[in-house]
Amino acid sequence: MKLESSYAFVYDISDFDAAEEINRYDKYRGRMFACDTHSDNMRGVVSGHNGTHVLTLTTCEVLFSIPRGCWWVCFLELSNRLAYSDGDSVYVCDVQSGVDVLKLKGHNGEVKSGALVRGETEIYTSSADGTVKLFDLEKEECIYTFFNHRAQQYTKVGVSPCGEKVAVGNENGMLYVLKSGNYQ
What we know:
This protein is mainly β. It is globular. The protein is built from no helices and 17 strands. The strands form 5 sheets. The chain has a 4-stranded antiparallel β-sheet with strand order 3-4-5-6, with no helix packed on it. Helix content is 0%, strand content 56%.
């Protein structure tokens, strides 16, 4: 059986018409499903079947790896942490040490996507269980759950820049736009 590999490419797009490949990460053994770039433009992260790997963008050297992860990953810029999904849970780890500092539970299916809001203190998650949840990262609890009986697996959640609208797409081709509120 051939081991499947994925590649992550780093491009300089400062001149969009002449985008140039700067580097390539080709040591990931498995399928990648998620990635993010830190605002310092020095670190990136990929996640998939082979866990979550944080790497430098200049050399693609792996700074640390976490054996979990798959569908979604995101840097929390303000706290120098990283959020990622694995199965039905969301984890938050310290970017310097790679150690998990928080585990959010509540979904009954794989967490497919997440979006940070309110100064990175809350996170919306979408799941294959047909729910969208809003978690408070400081209280470490779910503060709101959205469910629609017609919905199938949610695949993506996005939040408007002001945080007032939440868009959620699912497997049956539906897009739901939710009005955010104060759920605390």
